[in-house]
Amino acid sequence: MKQLIMNNRFKMLSLNDQWWVALAAGVSLLLVGSAVISWSQPSISPLRWILQAAPVIIYILFILQRNLRFNRRCQDGRMSVSLGAANWITLARGGLIAMLAGFWWQPWPGRLYPAEGAGWLPGILFIAATLGDALDGWVARMTDNQTLLGIYLDTRIDALGILVASFVAVSYGQLPEFYISAGLAWYLLRLAVWLRKKTGRRCGEVKRRRGARLMAGLQMAFLGLVLLPLFSPPLTHVAAVLILIPFLAGFFLDWHMVCHHENSN
C-alpha cells in the first residue's frame, strides 16, 4: 500500500518536476560512479571520468527538456502527464552510456587486469544499455504508453551509445581508427539533411529502412563484445570490417533516398 501511494504521488509530479528528478539522478550517478571508480580501479582518474561522463548526462537532459512537449501517446496524440516506466528505462540506458564515456582515453582495465572483474566493466555497461533497448520498447507496449518522446529518445540514445562505444573501443585499440565512422554515421546523415534543407534543395525524409533495426542491434552487440576482455586484434579488426561495411551501406541508402526523393508537388 505504501509503495502504491508513493507511485501515485510520483505520477502527480509535472513533467518539469520529473525532469528535475532526472537531473538529480544524473548528478548522483556522477558522484557515486566516480567514488566507485576511485575505490575499485586505481588506473582510472575519477576526475577525468566525471569530466568525460558529465557532457553525456548534460546532452541527455538537454534533449529531454527540449522535447517534453512531445510526451504524447502515439495512438491518439493525447498528452501523457508522466514520463512513464519505458522512458525512465531509456534514460537509465543513457546513464550507462555516460558511465562508459568516462573510460574514453583512459587505461583499459581489461588490458591491465584481464583476470579481474574491473576489466569487464566497460563491456558490461554497454551490454546492459543494449539489453535495455529491447526492454524499454517492451515496457512501452505492455503499459500501452508508447509516446513520440519515447521514440525520439530511444533513437538518440541508440546513436549516442554506438558513438561512445566506438570511440572507447578505438581508444583501447580493439578496433581500427576508421571504425569511428560507425559512431559518426547517424550524426553526419542528420547534419547533411539539415544542410540540404537549409540551402533549399529538394530533400526527402529519412524513413525507417527494412533491416535497419537489425543492423543497429548487430552493431551494438558487436561493440559490447569487443569491449569485453575476450577478443583482441587482429581478430577484432577483421570482424570490424565485416560489420562496418553493411552498417555504413545502410546510411548511404538513406542518403540516396533523401537526395532522390520525388517531390509530389
- Give me the number of helical elements: 10
Dominant shape: globular
- How much helical structure, as a percent, in the residues? 55-70%
Rg for CA atoms:
20 Å
- Structural class assignment: mainly alpha
Q: How many domains would you count in the coordinates?
A: 1
Let me know the largest β-sheet: none
Amino- and carboxy-terminal Cα gap: 59 Å
β-strand percent reads under 5%
Order of helices and strands: HHHHHHHHHH
Task: Give the mean pLDDT.
Answer: 86
Tally of strands: 0
Poorly predicted runs of 5 or more residues: 1-8
Outline of this structure?
By secondary structure, the chain is mainly α.
Give the helices and strands, then pairings:
Blueprint lengths: L1 H10 L3 H26 L5 H21 L17 H18 L7 H4 L8 H22 L5 H24 L8 H19 L13 H15 L8 H25 L6
Describe the model.
With 265 residues, the protein is mainly alpha-helical. The chain is built from ten helices and no strands. The protein has one domain (2-259). Helices cover 69% and strands 0% of the residues. Helix 2 runs antiparallel to helix 3, helix 4 packs antiparallel against helix 6 and helix 7 packs across helix 8 (180-198). The longest helix is centred in the first third of the chain and has 26 residues, at 15-40. The protein is globular. Mean pLDDT is 86; it is low at 1-8.
